[in-house]
Amino acid sequence: MTIEEQKEKQRTVPFPHAGIIVLVGPSNSGKTTLLRRLVDEGTLLQTEIVSSDDYRTMLGDTDFMDWKNRPREEADIIFNDYQLLSSLAFEAMNSVIAVRCRLGKLTVVDATHLQAEYRKQYLELADKYNVPCMAWVLDVPEETLLQRDIQREHPRGRQRVKQQYGQFKRSLRSVKDEGFASTYFLNNSEEVLFERKQNPLWVEIGSGLDIIGDIHGCYEEMIELLERLEYKEDEQGLYKHPEGRQLISVGDVMSRGPESLKTMRFWKKHVDAGIARMIDSNHGWKIARYLAGRKVTLNHGDENIAAELELFALEAGEEEAKRLRDELKQFLLSAPSHLLFGHNGVRRVVVTHAGIRDEYIGKQSKRIQDFCRYGDTDGMDGKGAPVRKEWYVEHESGEIIVWGHDPRPSPTVVKNTVNIDQGAVFGGSLTAYRYPEQKFVSVKAKRDYAGDPDSPLIRWERGRFSPPNLRKFVEGYSVQTDLYGELTVRREFVKAAIDTVSHFTVPLEELVYIPPTMSPPPSVSIDKNYLEHPREAFAYFRAQGVKTMIAEKKHMGSRAILLLFRDEEAALSYVGRPTLGTIYTRTGRAFFDRDTESEVLRRLNADLVRANYFAKNNTDLLLLDAEIVPWNLKARELISSQYAHVAEAALLDREHLLEKLHEAERLGRDVASWIMEMEEKLQNAHLFKEAFQKYCWDVSGLEGIKIAPFHTLAHSGQTFFEHSHLWHMEHNRELAELSPFFMETEYRTVCNEADEEQVIRWWEEMTEDGHEGIVIKPETFITRNGGKLVQPALKVRGRKYLHIIYGIDYLHPDNLVRLKQRKTSKKERHALMECALSRESVERFIRKEPIERVHECVLAALSLESDPVDPRL
């Protein structure tokens, strides 16, 4: 007899890839011997076994206590000690089993488990952590148990063996009905082959994945999408990719649309051929139960399938229709709740229908199936629609989760989760997500097949501009950002920000970005003549592993955000009203008065349209972070009430004192040191006046106003945070060629020490001439060092300019020593948090998420500005 024939005659018992196997059998039934054999064969890992005897030994240094043949008073004490040790051993053992279940590991529990209540605890653990629980029952004759006991080093004794055997036989009546996923009865005479199973949810990525969103019977759009993805139909009618890529559906291939039956048959044919996979879904589950004869209510387009099946029966006959119904039923019932696609043993992509929690990934249970079908819901709203919770903000485990179910106007990426249901059946688009390219390919639906006046896309669009519910924010709240993680905003700062937004800022739908603050270098200059110097900024970035930096001239103006639209109609889908755009300050207030803003926007639009900017870039909008000069456009009152008056008063006072000191000197008084000190202070006053006046020049109408963009933040459907600062500088140079309003931002690239010295000389010349200074940035917009976020920018201000910030006499040695003790850590933390919030708000705005989602980021950034930080930093 061949080995293959022997295996066919052997009974096969499978090991699940994860879960709990509970061994059931009295002492001496061979549990430990069987497990040792499986370890020796390589079928089982030693670490996958937990044994009550081992845990007794681990905790109490022995697995056996003999209380027989002892005086009564000793026997009772030893027996009680053994009972306590056993109880604690099982407590420790069960804690380990729970952890292994959470990790999705297999655990075989080696103990007798003769009573149902002991077995029940493992069923409950398995249910809690969504893993299967199996029972292996070792049924050995009583005589064999007694013979084996005699041969043990520490025999349990005839009475105890017979007692356990009686308990075992009684438990056999109920073990099959206790809820185990499967129960196997093993005896000595039977040859058994133990087979190790792999996780059925695991799939190798192979040549690549093309994951398609909810199709809902839109067969023509599906075929068009496949052709765009370069799939070709062969002689058998199978669509295959020339590179062998896999085709994946997130489910809901049927219902609502015109050709559900044809679409289901397409996917069954391709899944059967092994070139495609389809995930379980809410509509798929309902149709499967309908085909199985279960009583279900067919609505929301499911009734179309019943009509299509009736038509098929009329055309093909009842027998053929029954065969098709059975095939489709089995196909839908066999669809997995989710799939893991990986490479080199590491999961990279998870595909599910409506969502999945991190702790569910790779596991199977009814609870997980329901979550994957319906998502995380919280009852129904007033119209009977499910209230969907944002499960995706909790995703932390790293892999990409691709899902559908919740129609949105465009693909939505949040925390490594990708929604690709763009409501094709509601007149939206059918979307595919390509991996590893991480690109989207979409086709527009030919029409709105569902004809639902309250479709998800309509509700989404209608609700986008609904005012935020301030009650969600006023007591403090947290924002989940892709860049920084979760940010918590304290209530006292939120209230101040809400007051600002309520009374002073531009309309909420146009307030899409608050520029992040910038910190000076973390360490002050070691040069006794400087408070800030570029060397400290270079040293910081070098220490963070940054090899290339960009040094940009810091303009002598006011920060401004420009949101510019191709035309007034283009603004409707973004801000809900026709407009050419808006220009606002870093605190969200309108930069210009209404008439001036209108004229600036009109001229900018005319310049950009004339240059064909919007068409060339295939965009409806341009979002810029910029500086508008001169400074006195926004700071005229500050200049006149604070800087000008201080300068004039200081000059008059110091000139007068110096004159009196010279008179005293002429009278023979020894005041030379005082004269020297006063001359220095007078020079400081002149420097102070010169510093702020460099920021001011007269502007007649719009003449003399210049806009210096330094970040091109976004176009339609695209943000530019991943682009290097070199790209931003070059793009801004292009803008300066398109409109006389725009001006270039001068910059230098820093790659080595020679570059650093050149930038230092540039900075010294510029700042000695009265300019503010430079901003030094790493080459990439977002830079990390070992997972830690690096400062996105550091500002280095000149000696003269800092007179405005720190006072007329800040360079006096005593003052400079004191100022060099300043702390920048809080400013640095705010810079990182505001950078994360500003990026998050723009990403959400470009994805056309509801205004409340954008507003929670903007409000958080404004709230951080209310958190007191030394304003001079």
How would you characterize this protein structure?
It is a single chain. This protein has 873 residues and is of the alpha/beta class. The chain folds into four domains: 13-196, 3-Layer(aba) Sandwich (Rossmann fold); 202-299 and 330-463, Metallo-dependent phosphatases (Purple Acid Phosphatase, chain A, domain 2), CATH 3.60.21.10; 497-630 and 700-812 and 830-866, 2-Layer Sandwich (D-amino Acid Aminotransferase, Chain A, domain 1); 634-694. Helices cover 41% and strands 19% of the residues. The protein has a six-stranded mixed sheet, covered by helices on one side. Strands 9, 12, 13, 21, 22 and 23 form a six-stranded mixed sheet that branches. It is globular and about 130 Å long. This is Polynucleotide kinase-phosphatase. Residues 496-868 form the Polynucleotide kinase-phosphatase ligase domain.
Q: Summary?
A:
The protein is α/β, with parallel strands linked by helices and 873 residues long.
Distance between the termini: 86 Å
Main beta sheet = 6 strands, mixed
Q: What's the CATH superfamily of the largest domain, by name?
A: DNA ligase/mRNA capping enzyme
Number of strands: 36
- Assign the structural class, choosing from mainly alpha, mainly beta, alpha/beta, alpha+beta, or little secondary structure: alpha/beta
What proportion of the residues form beta strands (DSSP E)?
A: 15-25%
Based on CA atoms alone, the radius of gyration comes out at 37 Å
The overall pLDDT average reads 86
Instruction: Provide the helix percentage.
Output: 40-55%
Tell me the count of domains.
Answer: 4
Q: Uncertain segments of ≥5 residues (pLDDT<50)?
A: none
Shape estimate = globular
- DSSP summary: helix tally: 27
The first-level CATH class name of the largest domain: Alpha Beta
